[in-house]
Amino acid sequence: QVQLVESGGGLVQAGDSLRLSCAASGRAGSAYFMGWFRQAPGKEREFVAGISVSSLITEYADPVKGRFTISRDNGKKMAYLQMNDLKPADTAVYFCAAGRIPITAQAADRRSPTEYQYWGQGAQVTVSS
Prior knowledge:
Layout: E1 2-7, E2 10-13, E3 18-26, E4 33-39, E5 46-51, E6 58-60, E7 68-73, E8 78-83, E9 92-99, H1 107-110, E10 118-119, E11 123-128
Parallel strand pairs: 2-11
Antiparallel strand pairs: 1-3, 3-8, 4-5, 4-9, 5-6, 7-8, 9-10, 9-11
């Protein structure tokens, strides 16, 4: 069992930056593929970014490429999402997730919420214009 807790959300203005953190606890909390997803009101949960255990693979959804950076520190059992140049369209609840996803998995699988077994409670990010 892995528990995930997000922190770092808040209310910012367009163009500002935020860093979300995800603390993992439990058995082998650093041995999972980590992902960040977000869900805006009335919309489905969508993939934002993902990172493999060794950080060899990182990938991003098109709307955040060049603005967001995912990273992890396995020794601290932490994952991060640095968000720069935030836009009102980034407003959503952001979720950290962990999944037993092999490095050989296809990108479509790494981006699917159904491939992740553990989820945090979410952190609200609100970007005003």
